[in-house]
Specification:
- Strands 1-2-3-4 form a four-stranded antiparallel β-sheet, with no helix packed on it. It has a four-stranded antiparallel β-sheet with strand order 5-6-7-8, with no helix packed on it.
- Among the domains are: about 30 residues, no CATH class; about 130 residues, Neuraminidase (6 Propeller).
- It has four helices and 27 strands.
- It is about 10% helix and about 45% strand.
- A hairpin with a 7-residue loop joins strand 11 and strand 12.
- By secondary structure, the chain is mainly beta.
- The termini are far apart.
Length: about 400
């Protein structure tokens, strides 16, 4: 079975054969084929120190204004009611807000509000990573700044953000400075690279452009999670020799010193294209690593889940859902673990889940939500009342559903 057929049969990339042929030459061809029909519903969610749920979305500038605004809303009753939308910027600018890219939201130890997003630039697939913060609970926000020192007109996109237990802010992104430099030297360079920056002053400044790894996939989101020690860990789709797009894992160090990456999936998917389908990552309190990902294995595409013990020994992967399953997320809170993913049945899209109350030793399956229209990817969020699904749909707006009830 050829690569085109393998991708198509997975149910993830419902594109024409023409688009697939282009994807073999251009890792972004899928993005080109989908962009015109895509509805920008990209939403992030986070909980502040008072247990309130916040969401970050994007709204158009309006009245002919070029660009968009990041918009925040807060709920103190887990999504039953929401505060009025509040813009985080004084001026509109282009913002990516769909698919694998959306504004990211996090909170500091003193309830600082942190927002990161990608601003597209003038050439296709170029961008820069922007950052905004509020230190007064959202009453005022700083002007947007660019977190990386490199300002070449290249890919700096698909950012992820996390705050570690010490209060440091980490922002990681996909970066093409090394592939661009290699091309100028007529050298081969597979994929892109993962870079990150760190702030230890509450987002007032960032240091870095630290390289985490060469040869990442070009357009898959980076999963960030805190391990039991409160340190930041990244998981991403990597390009292993000769051209295998499996996943890698590495910790982020505040001093930027290199950390050897570990390979954490072994599906041996050889494809000259980016599937726009990043992994999910969470750690249990005992050090168990829970990971979800999409790959093609044995000529069949699908979602997979596996857990490793504290020593890093990975258990046997389990397939999630049907061939149409896509965009999984994972969350762990105490002994509760939730896996959630989208699945289209030909008429509607459902969010299906597997729920465990014993740290992943046994599972129950549930349907959490359903819609007949366009929808965002599912987001699982740890809250004081348990793990919830935050899911934005065209027809129903933002829905918040308890996800860890069995």
């Amino acid at each position: 079975m050829n690569t085109v057929h393998r991708i198509f049969s997975s149910g993830l990339l419902a594109l024409s054969l023409v688009a697939f042929g282009a994807a073999a030459q251009d890792p972004h061809a899928q993005h080109k084929a989908m962009k015109s029909a895509r509805v920008e519903l990209g939403t992030s969610a986070a909980v502040d120190g008072q247990g309130r749920l916040w969401i970050a979305t994007v709204e158009a500038g309006g009245q002919g204004a070029a660009g968009s605004y990041v918009v925040l809303q807060m709920s103190s009753d887990m999504g039953q009611t929401w505060s009025p939308p509040a813009r985080a910027q004084q001026a509109a600018e282009p913002i990516e807000a769909a698919g694998e890219s959306r504004p990211k939201l996090a909170f500091g130890a003193r309830n600082e509000i942190y927002i990161a997003y990608t601003r597209p630039l003038s050439k296709p697939y170029t961008g820069e990573i922007r950052f905004i913060r509020s230190i007064d609970g959202g009453k005022t926000f700083s002007a947007p700044t660019t977190v990386h020192a490199n300002r070449d007109l290249i890919t700096h996109r698909f950012e992820s953000m996390i705050v570690d237990r010490a209060g440091r802010v980490y922002i990681a992104w996909i970066d093409k400075r090394d592939s661009t430099a290699a091309r100028a030297r007529n050298e081969k360079y597979a994929g892109a690279a993962i870079y990150y920056a760190v702030s230890d002053d509450g987002g007032a400044s960032f240091r870095g452009d630290y390289k985490l790894a060469d040869h990442s996939c070009e357009c898959c989101r980076i999963a960030l999670a805190l391990d039991p020690q409160g340190s930041a860990v990244a998981m991403w789709r990597h390009v292993f020799e000769p051209n295998v797009r499996d996943h890698a894992l590495a910790g982020l160090r505040p001093d930027g010193k290199p950390v050897a990456a570990s390979r954490v999936t072994f599906d041996d998917w050889q494809v000259d294209a980016c599937p726009h389908h990043g992994p999910g990552l969470a750690f249990g309190p005992d050090g168990t690593r829970h990971q979800v990902w999409f790959d093609v294995k044995d000529d069949e595409g699908g979602l997979f889940y596996a857990a490793s013990d504290a020593a890093g020994s990975l258990g046997k992967p389990v397939r999630l859902g049907a061939a149409q399953a896509e965009h999984a997320d994972v969350a762990a809170q105490g002994n509760n673990v939730v896996l959630a993913w989208k699945q289209f049945d030909g008429k509607e899209t459902a969010i299906l889940s597997r729920v465990s109350g014993d740290a992943g030793r046994s599972w129950q399956e549930r349907e959490l939500a359903r819609t007949g229209g366009a929808s965002d990817q599912p987001r699982l969020v740890n809250t004081p009342s348990g793990i919830v699904l935050v899911w934005r749909t065209r027809d129903d707006g933002v829905r918040v559903v308890p996800a860890d009830r069995r």
